[in-house]
Amino acid sequence: MDTEILKKDIIAYSKSIGIDKIGFAAPTAFEEMKVRLYRQQELQYQSGFEEKDIEKRTEPALIFNRPKSIISIALAYPSKMKTLVVSKKGERRGIFCRASWGTDYHAVLRDRLKKLEEYIASKVPGARFKSMVDTGELVDRAVAERAGIGWSGKNCSIITPEFGSYVYLGEMITNIPFEPDTPMEDQCGSCNKCVDVCPTGALVQGGQLDAQKCIAFLTQTKGFLADEYREKLGNRIYGCDTCQTVCPENKGKDFHFHTEMEPDPEIAKPLLRPLLTISNREFKERFGHVSGSWRGKKPIQRNAIIALAHYKDDTAIEELILVMRDDPRPVLRGTAAWALGKIGGSDAQDALLRAADREQDEEVLEEIRKGLEFFNADSETNIRI
Fold first, then answer.
1. 3-state class (DSSP) for residue 281
2. What stretch of H or E contains 243?
3. Considering only CA atoms, which of 92, 58, 40, 82 is closest in space to residue 306?
4. Which of 114, 212, 289, 324 has the most beta carbons within 10 angstroms of its beta carbon?
5. In 3-state terms, what secondary structure has residue 91?
6. Is 241 a catalytic residue?
7. What are 200-211's pLDDT values in tens digits?
């Protein structure tokens, strides 16, 4: 088997099935990444969504018998919507990050990896593979960096010269010994824009992220959002793109190569008020195909409530009162109470006072107190509950 010819054939085939960039890496341990991950663990900077076994995340031989190569792939995704929808009073909208536009990228990349596996298997009887996307053991970014897909930016994303950081990554471990490609040297230089503008200071320094502070992580949590982050959320209901949109390497980068990734504006930037009462079935039918739905509707609804407070949307007061009064989930009742205080108005204040007499949950009562404090700040008369 001439692996050099095979490699060229694979590269050519990959382009024919919609893989925008492909690279080959040695399957040796990712020692530098291992050190960084253990340090992240010590600092409690991990999100908790990752594979917990750091050895498995950095040692291909622990998850694949006698690996010889790792193939890394990248698919470019859009950074702009072709059709715009406008957020306006009475019709305020939230936004999903770009990585949740179109069909769930896990499904798209798995499709490409499966086709690539089938092609290689047709060429090499006895070839073995283990493919993964995002939720697998290996760190996608470390593999892509070693395979020459791009360099690891200060924003903790892989940045490619062609597509910026607007790329999805996947990889395939195999028992075929391909010649590795050359890793790309860092090109961020002295630029520190992503670190400087991170809304919560989650980018501690270039290349180091405290995931516990990252808005992308916070939008996926299911409990009460800490007060210090509510003001930072804005109208984001899933994810955050700030560290990408400010990156000079992303200026002018907008690629529409894959129909599956094209955003439906009404899904990517949905009206907020209807989200408050959406049923499980409606949520699944409408949003089930996007990656941002994986945690269910509760975090999205909580974030939508915070977004309405951000807009001070008084047209949503009636719906927020109903959520505070009737929703069985304390997190949504409490967040609605806080939002009513932020928005203000006599109807909101009266509803909060009534809720204070009726509510039994201590966490919700605390949120009602916070809501009423907003009125106290604007009044000489203190309201106590």
1. helix
2. helix 242-245
3. 92
4. 324
5. strand
6. no
7. 999 999 999 999
